[in-house]
TrEMBL record:
CDD domains: LMWPTP (cd16343). InterPro entries: LMW_PTPase (IPR050438), Ptyr_pPase (IPR023485), Ptyr_pPase_sf (IPR036196), Tyr_phospatase_low_mol_wt (IPR017867). Its EC number is 3.1.3.48. Belongs to the low molecular weight phosphotyrosine protein phosphatase family. It catalyses: O-phospho-L-tyrosyl-[protein] + H2O = L-tyrosyl-[protein] + phosphate. It comes from Heyndrickxia acidicola. Keywords: Hydrolase, Protein phosphatase. It comes from the Bacteria. This is protein-tyrosine-phosphatase.
């Protein structure tokens, strides 16, 4: 099983959106028996909480299931459990390095570094723009899935 973890600050906006969308793409490609998806936070503020209402609204708009999404914190041992650890912005990446103790490891990737954008995904908790976040997450997730398919011969 290939394990993918999406990480953001609170695990209520960007990373659960990416988890749900990526899980949706994996299901559409009939890869659920090969790829598992999860998400986590670098902070502890929203542990145990469901995703932000804006994330839930946009997932519902695109008919993407939000079942099972609940905030949890990134743990050091997640480094060993996951094959790909995907941060949403540079601050997330630095915190992932700090928490896992694995700075600059190639399995830790900023999502939009896989795209032509090569930038941070803005946090809609602060910007309020869940549409922009969805567009960027969607682009990144599609490219990530293609990368995994190539690397793992799926």
């Amino acid at each position: 099983m290939i394990n993918v973890l999406f990480v953001c600050l609170g695990n209520i906006c960007r990373s659960p959106m990416a988890e749900a969308l990526f899980r949706h793409l994996v299901k559409k490609e009939n890869l659920t028996n090969k790829i598992a998806v999860d998400s986590a936070a670098t902070s502890s503020w929203q542990i145990g909480f469901p995703p932000h209402e804006g994330t839930l609204d946009i997932l519902k708009r695109y008919n993407i299931s939000s079942d099972g999404l609940v905030g949890r914190r990134l743990k050091k041992e997640d480094f060993w459990r996951f094959d790909y650890i995907i941060g949403m912005d540079e601050s997330n990446i630095k915190n992932i390095y700090r928490i896992t103790g694995k700075p600059n490891h190639p399995k830790i990737i900023r999502l939009l570094d896989l795209t032509i954008y090569r930038k941070d995904i803005p946090d809609p908790f602060y910007t309020g723009d869940f549409d922009e976040t969805y567009r960027l997450v969607s682009t990144g997730c599609r490219i990530l899935l293609n990368k995994i398919r190539r690397e793992k011969n799926l």
